[in-house]
Every structure is written in structure tokens, then in C-alpha cells.
Automatic annotation (TrEMBL):
Subcellular location(s) per record: Cytoplasm
One GO process term, biological-process aspect: carbohydrate catabolic process
Taxonomic lineage from the root: Bacteria, Bacillati, Actinomycetota, Actinomycetes, Micrococcales
EC number, as in UniProt: 4.1.2.4
InterPro entries: Aldolase_TIM, DeoC, DeoC/FbaB/LacD_aldolase, DeoC_typeI
Protein name: Deoxyribose-phosphate aldolase
GO cellular component: cytoplasm
Keywords associated with the record: Cytoplasm, Lyase, Schiff base
Active site: D95, K158, K188
Function summary: Catalyzes a reversible aldol reaction between acetaldehyde and D-glyceraldehyde 3-phosphate to generate 2-deoxy-D-ribose 5-phosphate.
Classification via HAMAP family: DeoC_type1
Length: 228
């Protein structure tokens, strides 16, 4: 969908520089912030227990976190409480996980209600992204969940947590999600995007944000490919 190649700086500005490993430490988060500043990423994405986090050393850097992560099998009021706490602790963006089982059962009204509960706890201009675990869904389910997310007032739909055994982002899923939301919502490709070629393919398919844990390698690969 892009019409011009992305340079490394422009690509970095699409990236949520991500650290969600259970064994992550505060020292790791400090290093993440420093690396985000060096690479020029849009944001960092960290677990909610690390909030609040000091990003004053990197002017303009946004802070994202997760909610109901990684299973999504939490009561809606628990997700909403977690999201509200994260916003109070300074998060600019919240990436919530849907109840994938509800989607598999065709309970899309319940999926929409779950998202709406979190949306109420993440008022604009805070950003709400909805993780749908696209690799675990059929195409029809992806479309229905994206429509539920839009109806509930989400800002983005996002492919994956990166923790599901079915896999992460695919070009097919990103393209389908982008076609479904038609530019009205953003599309975040996350999970298994490890190379510059992966990242560019996701953007070409319609991703407007990338969730990367190996951002430095992706940017370095793009620099190498472009002869920087």
C-alpha cells in the first residue's frame, strides 16, 4: 500500500519498541528506553508492572503497555481496571488482548463489549489497540473481530501477542485487517517480524505500526539494504 520506500528513520517511527518477556528487569527497561532514543522509535511497549517509567531522556517517546496479556481470558472489568491503572501510571497507549475463544465461538457481540469496557478506561486521546491473535482465527473471524473493534471505538487492530503457538503476523492477515478497517483504524503487525524484509512486507500490506523486539536488527538490515 506504500508508494515510496521507507528509509530507516521513517521505519523506526512506525515501531513500538517492545519488551514483554516475563524475565525482564528494570535495568532491561532502562536499556530499552536508551535504545529507543538511539533508534528513534515511536514508542516503547512494556509490561504494566514497569509503569510509571521515566522517558524524559527521549523527548517525544510514547509509552505503550499491554492489558489482559497474553491470554485475553480475563473478565472485562479486570481488563478495564488494569487499563485504567496503566493510564493513571502514564501509559499513552494500551494494547489489549481479546478473548480469542469468544471469537472462535462466534460471540462477536461479547468481543465488542469486552473491547468497549477497556475503551471506557482508556479515553481519547489515549490510544487503544486490540490484539486479535490473527493466526488463531479464520479469515471470516478476523473480519468479524476487526468490525467489533471498530464498533467498540478502538484506534488500532493488532495481529498478535507474539506468545501464541499458532504464530504471529502474516502478510495475508495484515492485508485482510487493513482492507476491513479501510484506513479508519490503524493496523499493527506484531509477532515474528524480525527482518527488514518482514517489516517492509507488513507495511506494504497495510500495517501502520510495527511491534518489534529486535528493532535494532531490523533497522540495521534496512540500512544495509539501502547502502546507508
Amino acid at each position: 500500500m506504500t508508494t515510496a520506500p521507507l528509509d530507516p528513520a521513517a521505519l523506526a517511527q512506525l515501531v513500538d519498541h517492545t519488551l514483554l518477556k516475563p524475565e525482564a528487569t528494570r535495568a532491561d527497561v532502562d536499556a530499552l528506553v536508551a535504545e529507543a532514543g538511539r533508534l528513534g522509535t515511536f514508542s516503547i511497549c512494556i509490561s504494566p508492572s514497569f509503569l510509571p517509567v521515566d522517558v524524559s531522556s527521549v523527548p517525544g517517546l510514547k509509552v505503550a503497555t499491554v492489558c489482559g496479556f497474553p491470554s485475553g481470558k480475563h473478565h472485562s472489568e479486570v481488563k478495564a481496571a488494569e487499563a485504567a491503572r496503566s493510564v493513571a501510571d502514564g501509559a499513552d497507549e494500551v494494547d489489549m488482548v481479546i478473548d480469542v475463544g469468544a471469537a472462535k465461538e462466534g460471540r462477536f457481540d461479547d468481543v465488542q463489549a469486552d473491547i468497549a469496557a477497556v475503551r471506557a478506561a482508556v479515553p481519547a486521546p489515549k490510544v487503544l489497540k486490540v490484539i486479535i491473535e490473527s493466526a488463531a482465527l479464520t479469515d471470516d473471524e478476523i473480519v468479524a473481530v476487526c468490525r467489533a473493534a471498530e464498533a467498540a471505538g478502538a484506534d488500532f487492530v493488532k495481529t498478535s501477542t507474539g506468545f501464541h503457538p499458532s504464530g504471529g503476523a502474516t502478510v495475508h492477515a495484515v492485508r485482510l485487517m487493513a482492507q476491513t478497517v479501510g484506513g479508519r483504524l490503524g493496523v499493527k503487525a506484531s509477532g515474528g517480524v524480525r527482518t527488514a524484509a518482514d517489516a517492509l512486507a507488513m507495511v506494504e500490506a497495510g500495517a501502520t505500526r510495527l511491534g518489534l523486539s529486535g528493532t535494532a536488527a531490523v533497522v540495521a538490515g534496512l540500512e544495509a539494504d539501502a547502502g546507508y
